[in-house]
Amino acid sequence: MVVRFLFVKKHPVFEPGTASGFDAYTHALALAGALRTQFLNGYGGTFSQLNHAKQCYSFRHFCQIRRNWHKICISNLQLYGELTNDAISVSHPRYIQDAIRYHLLREVAHGGMGVVYEAEQLGAGGFSKKVAIKLIREEFSTVESFQRNFIGEARLVSGLVHPNIVQIYQLGENLGQYYMVMEWVNGNDLETLLERLWEADEPFPLEWACFVVSRICRGLDYAHNQRDARGRPLDLVHRDVNPRNILLSHEGDIKLTDFGVAKALNLMFSKEREVIAGNDDYLSPEQAQRRITDRRSDVFACGVLLAEMIAGFNIFAADTPEQTRENICTMRLPDFRELRPDIPDELIQITRRALERDRDARFPTASEMMTALEWYLYRDGYGPTHEKFAIFLERWLKD
Ligand SMILES: Nc1ncnc2c1ncn2[C@@H]1O[C@H](COP(=O)(O)OP(=O)(O)OP(=O)(O)O)[C@@H](O)[C@H]1O
Ligand SMILES: [Mg+2]
């Protein structure tokens, strides 16, 4: 005996909107949806019948139409269906409870927020998948405001799936210590590349500088435009675009990581009320002045990055965080032509526009900055690709 046709009726005490009621109701609708596909595939029942069933106000009303329906109770949810001998069998578990194990292979780096490991996620039958795990420093994990903000942000950014953003798979807690499981990016970060070029006294090729920043703008624009399930803008801002948060894979992929982390960290103060995490060298003027930020803050950070790749050093960085902040807000921008004689006017204009202190004068969106860079890059019809970037990276990042 199997359910041939299904009608879902909410149990009166489980209204949509309450956690369990909503869950059960959506699950049942999903079941109905799955069955609908089978009916449409010729197993009996029709789409319009099913829709009709869903539109019925009550079971009694529905029974007037079909008298031979049976009530099936699945965890407080009343489902009504016709039991037949047709061979349609549907098994839909509601949850899968599985203890996922991670094997930490090696420590990759110590960051402001914790330690990053190369790890393996282990599954059935010898399955294993490479992941990156960031163990959050214990002193953060125990601070309640951090927990709230970190978890809140992680929930928002968990939906970000984009080729230029490092994907978050899971946020977990182990003995009171939080950890994040992320996509493993097999490669290096942009800081390492900048250092290697600096050590070799080689300028960063302008086309690769523009290519990297254009891909970061692409990822940022996707995140900036995210909306919640009800269509309201999430107003995500990265706030910590810097070379350590830009990962370059051996295949030439360019990915931004640590989305949402800066927001949680911004609220971390030491006993002396000093911010104890965050990167001062890439702040926007509005961040440096502790004003409210929006997506244009990330555009400014992209400008700082681009200027750094052009000049070979961070143009604002000073000996003290205070002086750096001062430079970000007021310092006269350097003459980029003097620093880099081969730079075309168009690229100087793009860099200066991203670095406008007045955010109304900046590129209004990351997408506009990306387009400006791409116009510049592909003006001759052919330009940088990920494959060519991979060849460039191999030369400089070979271990
Ligand atoms: N998903 C990943 N795949 C591979 N390597 C990674 C991954 N995430 C981070 N790393 C490596 O770990 C380094 C440190 O990252 P992490 O974000 O912890 O440090 P940070 O950016 O200096 O500090 P913060 O914690 O303030 O962001 C990165 O620069 C990169 O080299
Ligand atoms: Mg980071």
Using the alpha-carbon principal axes, give the shape. globular
Radius of gyration, CA atoms, in whole angstroms:
27 Å
How can the largest sheet be summarized? 5 strands, antiparallel
**How many distinct beta strands?**
11
Span between termini: 63 Å
CATH topology of the largest domain: Transferase(Phosphotransferase), domain 1
How many discrete domains? 3
Mean pLDDT: 79
Second CATH tier, the architecture of the largest domain: Orthogonal Bundle
CATH H-level name of the largest domain... which superfamily?
Transferase(Phosphotransferase) domain 1
Low-confidence stretches: 1-28, 35-77, 81-90, 267-277
Strand content: 15-25%
Biggest sheet, strands in spatial order?
4-5-6-8-7
Bound molecules: adenosine-5'-triphosphate, magnesium ion
CATH domain class of the largest domain: Mainly Alpha
Count of helical stretches: 15
Supply the helix-strand structural class.
Answer: alpha+beta
H/E element order:
EHHHEEEEEHHEEEHHEEHHHHHHHH
Q: Helical amount among residues, as a percent range?
A: 40-55%
